[in-house]
């Protein structure tokens, strides 16, 4: 059994660490190096008929935005939490997505022949991409 004096000393030292030795917690919106950056991806879309047979495959290189970077996270002593530590984890995520219609311009039939006739030579696809990125508390999907 821990003596009352030892218990108070332990909690007093945690209290001192908590309020004097630890920098303030970064809150959502305090972006450290979280950016919205342009990137290139290769998109392939296949179309099938009602019986499940491949009709055409279309592809293209597309410029899209992505979220990249880091956010300040920390672990600090806590007398309130069961583990004795308070974890504040922040991640770089999209804060807003926008829809875009992109056109895939390289279309091929099931035999690999390039399609050139109108209505078959290209395919419009709807995508959602980040319009803005920010630091959010990890696991917080309520935004």
TrEMBL record:
One of its GO terms (cellular component) is bursicon neuropeptide hormone complex. GO terms for biological process: G protein-coupled receptor signaling pathway. Keywords: Signal. InterPro entries: Bursicon_suB, Cystine-knot_cytokine. One of its GO terms (molecular function) is G protein-coupled receptor binding. Residues 1-28 form the signal peptide. This is Partner of bursicon. It comes from Cryptotermes secundus. The lineage of its organism: Eukaryota, Metazoa, Ecdysozoa, Arthropoda, Hexapoda. The gene is Pburs.
């Amino acid at each position: 059994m821990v003596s009352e004096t030892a218990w108070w000393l332990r909690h007093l030292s945690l209290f001192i660490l908590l309020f004097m030795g630890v920098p303030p917690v970064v809150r959502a919106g305090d972006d450290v190096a979280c950016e919205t950056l342009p990137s290139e991806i290769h998109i392939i879309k296949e179309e099938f008929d009602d019986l499940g047979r491949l009709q055409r495959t279309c592809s293209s290189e597309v410029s899209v935005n992505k979220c990249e970077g880091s956010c300040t996270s920390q672990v600090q002593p806590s007398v309130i939490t069961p583990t004795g530590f308070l974890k504040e984890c922040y991640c770089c995520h999209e804060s807003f997505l926008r829809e875009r219609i992109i056109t895939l311009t390289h279309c091929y039939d099931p035999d690999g022949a390039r399609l050139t006739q109108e209505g078959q030579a290209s395919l419009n696809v709807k995508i959602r991409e980040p319009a803005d990125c920010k630091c959010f508390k990890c696991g917080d999907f309520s935004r």
